Amino acid sequence: MRFQNLTALSALLLTLFLFSGCGPATISKGAAYPKMYDQKPRSLLILPPMNESTDAEAKEYYMTTVEMPFAQLGYYTFPVEMVSDVMKQEGVYDTELLYNLPMNKFQEYFGADAVLFTEIKKWNVSYMVLASNLTVSIESKIVSTKTSEVLWQHSGTVVVDLSGGNNNGGGIAGLLIQVVATAVSTAAADYVKYARVANMRLVSTLPVGPYHALYLQDQDAQLTQ
Asked: Which of the following CATH numbers is that of domain 26-215: 3.40.50.10610, 2.40.50.140, 2.40.10.10, 3.80.10.10?
């Protein structure tokens, strides 16, 4: 019986040791997105986002933030206004119609190697008297116009505390100060600023493009799963 107890204890200690040494799981960019390196897209067509949030203006705000990060990462990005004009000339006015077009149409219209699809999942402020949070959540994927395969897919979420600091005393006066600070912070919330932060979290996982100095040299860069 004592031997069995010692064996069980040893197994438990070994398990605890193994788990204590485990950090966050990681994967290289090359292993996570091999098709990006295989197909080597050079030009990226950025479509207007699908807005699933409760904010009707989220789509317009977000479109002002999405093009630059991908261009800075080394991809040729088609000007948003030009894309919109061409689509309207083809009789496509609705974002849902754009998202349902065959991928080869984007290659035919623009000569694009790949298309960026984006969904705004959250773009809102949750407001309470003493606390308030701003949430911007984006999901994106890059799809090949040649094979219709998903080459890259990721999501980015930013949650910001707008409570204006903790109430560290002061009774009713301190409470009122915190309420006012929370209301002011909520009213001044800059969605575009935090959308840019969400975008940077997204593109940090993307293999760099052909106009970047590290092109085809970042396969071993590690991503946290």
From this structure: 3.40.50.10610
